[in-house]
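A note from the maintainers: we've had questions about how concatenated examples are separated. There is no special marker in the raw files; a new sequence line simply starts the next protein. For clarity in this README we add a label.
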Amino acid sequence: MSTRRASIAAGLIIAGILLVVIAFTTWYTVDESEQAVVITFGKADTPVTESGLHFKLPWPIQHVEKLSKETFSLQFGYKQDASGELVSFDKETKMITGDEYIVLADLVVQWKITDPQKFLFNSQKPEEILHDATSASIRSVIGSSTIDAALTDGKAEIEGKTRELLTTLVGNYDIGISIQGVKLQDVELPNAEVRAAFTAVTDARETKNTKINEAQKYKNKRENEAIGEKNAIQSRALGQKTARIEQALGDVALFNDLHAEYMKNQTITRQRLIIETLEQVLPKAKIYIMNDDGETLKYLPLQQMENQTPPPVSQTEGGGN
């Protein structure tokens, strides 16, 4: 009897344990920053990206793997230790440029998990694959770039090419990762003497560019002044041309009016024109009209007659009140 009771008690305990396991393994929650994959007997189902409470079959039939949706950072060539200081790995970042110079290049790669199923099952260590692909990409791009481009104004182009090549490699590996961005942190020469020499060359190049820009600015200024002066001369010439044309048109109109008057009375008009012409040609000369009919009065002093003032008008005798 005691053995039977013990068996029943053990059965109840086992059943209770199974019920507890079922109760706690048939549901799971997904946060907004997470995505989940339900795995049934080792086979992954469709990823769950909606946040909230979800249900599944109890363990060990199904279990859940949760992955973050956030953007991760891969630090290539350095890392930050517990005290916050940066530790560099020169052996990892040392590479040769296309013109056979040695540089140290480290960078940060921003990446996300876009396919949780591939991330979990297509490779054992996807982050190591990403690290190796990053190393291969940056070395390939630096190896086809010049030292000047790597240290000065070619960094943006190097970043773009590295991101493009890394995206292609990660896509070929098919590990469920997408590349969000590539940012070069430092590209420098391996020793202080070489850095100082290159800095001097860079400063000289900057001075040269500054002088060229200043000369170009002065050239543009002088060209603009010359263009402005040319436009002013052309404007004045056009104004003079217009004035001359208008004056000529006026002279033609005046001549036409004179010709019309001349045709009406040729003798009077001819004499008037002669007198007006003499006044214009000899403005200070005195003009006399001569009489050649044999009389005593030989000329008429018009100038004196014009200068004489008329006598005052006297009051009539017998006038007054």
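[label: protein 2]
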Amino acid sequence: MSKVFVNIGLSLDGYMAPEGMTMENWDKPEYKNWGAKWGALMGWIFNQRYFRENLKLGPGGETGPVNDLLRSTKERIGANIMGKRMFDGGERGWPEEAPFHTPVYVLTHEEREPWVRPGGTTFYFINDGPEHALELARESAGSRDIRIAGGADVIQQYLNMGVVDELEIALAPVLFGGGRRLFENLCEAGPEFRIDKVLDSPAATHLFYVRQ
């Protein structure tokens, strides 16, 4: 059976996104310095060859264990689930060939027809809750796995549902001091995880947890 996993970047003080990183300020990265903070959090990924190839950012990039990690994570994904806030930012920021190449189920209260992009990505807009989105994702993923892509509120919903099997966290040595925190609004009796492996690099420590 396919697994459900979270794969995200996180600041040292537990934030997925810095304060000020909103759609209202998308074109103002200097607002509360969110652009520089986001770059410090996720800069490691832009240096990896596989990531650059996937987004068609041009030649070059590092190879090695972190690059291999990105490739293996990408290849295991059969479907993605995300929230409307993440989709709205990506709709403006992703290239025409969105970097998923799978079905993507977007949790939203808005009704919208599926959005088909080049390269195998189709966004489906789900109005009737995270349970239905997961059911559809399992059907389309087949034997491959389901990634809960974000944002924080969506990840929290699936953690509270008790369906997340694995956490992959790229912990960057930066402090935000505010923003969108990952581990909030969780049930007291949430699932327990144990550390499975660690991959260290200068720009981020990659932590892998599996559910007990």
